[in-house]
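User: Can you help me understand a structure? I only have the sequence.
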Amino acid sequence: MISQKMEKEINSQITREMYSAYLYMSISANASRDGLKGIATWFMVQYHEEMVHAMKMYEYIIRQGGRVVLDVIQKPPSSWKSPLEMFENALEHEKTVTKNINNLLDLAVSEKDHASQTFFHWYVTEQIEEEDNATDITQKLRLIGDNAGALYLLDKELGARMLTVPSDFSKGVEAQMGAAA
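Assistant: Let's start by predicting it. Here is the structure, written out as tokens:
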């Protein structure tokens, strides 16, 4: 069983993860509009990853005998001035997500909830990767500056990103990932 406080906080994080997906879909649309198809692809893959994060939590609550309660998802911004601004925004957002995940793990520790501690360790590791990816691309964009040719090459590189997570949630995320978190 999961505590009511943990259930409530995980439900809140599901909403935040759904917002993350919504934010990255919005950035993808903005990049597409600007002719940056590779960046649009990168952010659409990121959208799918965030949906998986939310669905893993959804499934966890249910497996722990809790109740999933969905909330309103805040409207994300719809316009960015440059690819650099897109990725700087993504990096700052991921830092906020990391803080939220750390708070969930702290709650699990304080409640001596070993199952949730184990569950959230996956997210801690995931957030290291999320921040690293956004930092790497942000640094590249800063180096590129106004060089259109370099931006073209980076856009092409980012467009090669492939979806490596399940996108069909009808049979469960964990089962498709082959994990038992």
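Now, to help you interpret it: The chain has a mean pLDDT of 94. The chain has six helices and no strands. Let me know which part you'd like to focus on.
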